[in-house]
Amino acid sequence: MKQLFERKERPLYGAAVPMRLGRLADADIADYVADRFAQTSRSVGEALGPLLESAQGHPQRAIMLAHHLWDQVPSGEAGTLERWEAAHAAALAELQPEFDAIWRGYGSTVAQKTLRLIVAGSGSAYRTAVLRRLELEKSAASAAVQRLLDAADVEEAGAGKYRVVDPLYAEWIARVDAGGGDAADEG
Length: 187
Known about the structure:
Elements: H1 2-6, H2 26-39, H3 48-55, H4 59-72, H5 81-105, H6 109-120, H7 128-134, H8 138-150, E1 154-158, E2 161-164, H9 167-177
Antiparallel strand pairs: 1-2
Helix pairs in contact: 3-4, 4-5, 6-8, 6-9
């Protein structure tokens, strides 16, 4: 998309101004989800907390997770932790092919390792112990961070830290890093 709007030879050059949308406040998501559930004689119940934690303010993922939770809650009932776990698993299963394709689409394992570094390093792309475990040089990680920022796969999170834009993709990466993902060859 960036190339469509920022390269002079492209038809949409100069037609739009890039705008980064921020994350939604948990209170706003909570109010909206609770209201929508109530409109269909359901309650989000105790599942609201884990939904907000998993969505991390990401608008599209919050709605997706709420949709899967809504599917698990019968009319007249409330969301439970068990129903949340089923909804969360369903959302991740739905996204598995997309995440696997994105993962395999990186041009090198350096980008994959850098994403793993950001997730495992609590946002730091330069944590020495994780760099060593992933056998990644700091200079390579730095270059990969810039490419991932340009591709909008990661964003700055303040205080020199980064985060994966899609919180569910970050969860998926953590599972790959722990040996539980489906990207068998990890590259």
